[in-house]
């Protein structure tokens, strides 16, 4: 199977990071995962990801700040995966550059649908989300 490209996963929770990695790897992406904003910024400079998943509650740098800095480095769509579930959080995330927003806890299928929507596999039509 041909790789769908590199996904950069920035998530400080080991269990959630592992789950995201397994799901995206099974979808055909090469996954590079880090636990902090600083590591994520360094990786974004060198990896040229096709997609970035980003937690807002990172231990070192606010997720919105990380998003702004990544946007200066990359045009890859950003999928925010976060426990911040208030409507204002989602609006602030979109203003920070998020292409999509997924609240924790999430179902693996939700992550798969959003990844397919943001980075369709070659030769496939974009996935339309159903309510």
Walk me through the structure:
It is globular, with a radius of gyration of 13 Å. It has a single domain, classed as Response regulator (Rossmann fold, 3-Layer(aba) Sandwich). Helix 3 (63-73) links the parallel strand 3 (51-54) and strand 4 (78-82). Helices cover 42% and strands 19% of the residues. Strands 2-1-3-4-5 form a five-stranded parallel β-sheet, sandwiched between helices. With 131 residues, the chain is of the alpha/beta class.
Short description:
By secondary structure, the chain is of the alpha/beta class. 42% of the residues lie in helices and 19% in strands.
Low-confidence stretches: 125-131
Largest sheet: 5 strands, parallel
- The count of DSSP E runs of length 2 or more, i.e. the number of strands, is 5
CATH class: Alpha Beta
- The average pLDDT score comes to 91
SS content category = alpha/beta
Query: Which homologous superfamily in CATH is the superfamily?
Result: Response regulator
- Estimate the global geometry from the Cα principal axes: globular
Radius of gyration from CA coordinates: 13 Å
Reading side by side through the largest sheet, how are the strands ordered?
2-1-3-4-5
Provide the helix percentage. 40-55%
What is the beta-strand fraction? 15-25%
- Looking at the overall shape, the CATH architecture is 3-Layer(aba) Sandwich
Through-space gap between termini: 31 Å
- Provide the number of structural domains: 1
Number of helices: 5
CATH fold assignment? Rossmann fold
